[in-house]
Specification:
2 domains, globular
């Protein structure tokens, strides 16, 4: 029987345990299922609280705060399982959330990752920002989801209840083949947090794997548990890491023009922040580009190594137009408005 490790990376999240952990324990029963909290150097009483209140949960003390990407890498290196389930500490689950995702792996050996339907914990009738009904990117690397484009989140009216291939699965709740995760080198620890799961999924797709959305599995995500939306550090990481991701994974034919276009678009975003007197966000965009240039040497090495592993250059799940143009100029705020059928 295949072993499933549900791994929750925690950092100072003791306040979240009472509301979110019970549902995972209740709906994840089985001899082949282990629930593990990997603690990322918390300074609250997370580990003591777990020991006293959730003794059936396995603790993995990482000692240091490695960030999201490296934290998971360090934790998963120590875990023996056939499937990893990466779950944020602010996620609740429904009964039967595991089986539909595992079946996707069993149906197709090319499936490397599966994402459930992600709804909002605060407003369960709506999709949640981080993941919704599966992730995509446009031709400039901007991510969006079925059920969420930029800041517009749709109500779940079963409009995305078809299982299908997607471009990326959210790190808020992502099922992974353990060996595939390890073979791919795991998450890129240089990202620290934000977009590392998109980068991983892009690498996997370039290597011939599939990423799938499974709506029969439903979870509820609070969101913003570590860094709130709009936080300058979050802005910095999103802009910098998006450039990291593009540099590493773009096909040769699109590499130069796409990166140049992103530089211009990021500049426009910075000006918008400045005119809106969002000075910290403007500084974060500038800092993100400085961080990108600082890491160019390492990025070149990564790109060179990844290019040797590319099997598929073009992906149907990459939106061939500008999501920014569609959203701001054409007022297309729903996935169904895009006429995009990957």
């Amino acid at each position: 029987m295949n072993k499933i490790a549900i791994v929750i990376l925690n950092w100072n999240g003791v306040k979240l345990f009472p509301d979110f952990l019970p549902s995972i324990i209740k709906h994840s029963q089985g001899e082949n299922i282990e629930i593990i909290v990997a603690d990322n150097g918390s300074t609250d009483n997370s580990l003591a609280y777990l020991k006293d209140n959730f003794p059936t949960v396995t603790q993995l003390d990482l000692k240091n705060n490695y960030g999201f990407a490296k934290g998971y890498n360090v934790a998963l290196e120590q875990i023996d399982a056939d499937y990893f389930v990466l779950v944020n500490s602010d996620v609740k689950v429904e009964k039967g959330w595991i089986e539909p995702c595992i079946k996707q792996f069993e149906k197709d050996e090319k499936v490397a990752a599966v994402q459930p339907k992600v709804l909002s914990s605060n407003e369960p009738e709506y999709f949640e920002y981080a993941g919704a009904a599966g992730g995509f990117i446009d031709k400039f690397g901007y991510p969006f989801c079925r059920g969420r484009i930029l800041n517009k989140v749709e109500k779940d009216e079963n409009q995305y209840d078809n299982s299908s291939e997607i471009f990326w699965a959210t790190g808020a709740c992502m099922f992974m083949r353990a060996q595939t995760f390890k073979n791919a080198g795991g998450l890129d620890s240089d990202f620290w947090a934000h977009m590392e799961e998109i980068d991983l999924c892009w690498r996997l797709k370039n290597q011939g794997h599939k990423i799938v959305y499974e709506p029969q599995s439903v979870v509820y995500h609070l969101g913003g548990g570590t860094l709130e939306y709009g936080n300058p550090k979050k802005v910095y990481l999103n802009f910098r890491n998006n450039l990291f991701m593009l540099y590493k994974n773009l096909p040769k034919k699109k590499f130069t023009r796409t990166l140049l276009a992103r530089m211009i678009l990021d500049g426009a975003a910075g000006v918008k922040f400045l005119l809106g007197m969002e000075f910290k966000a403007f500084g974060a965009v500038c800092g993100a580009h400085m961080g990108f240039y600082k890491n160019l040497g390492e990025l070149r090495k990564k790109r060179k190594a990844l290019l040797t592993k590319v099997i598929v250059n073009n992906h149907e799940q990459m939106f061939p137009k500008s999501i920014m143009r569609k959203f701001f100029l054409q007022k297309k705020h729903k996935f169904t408005d895009l006429n995009f059928y990957p």
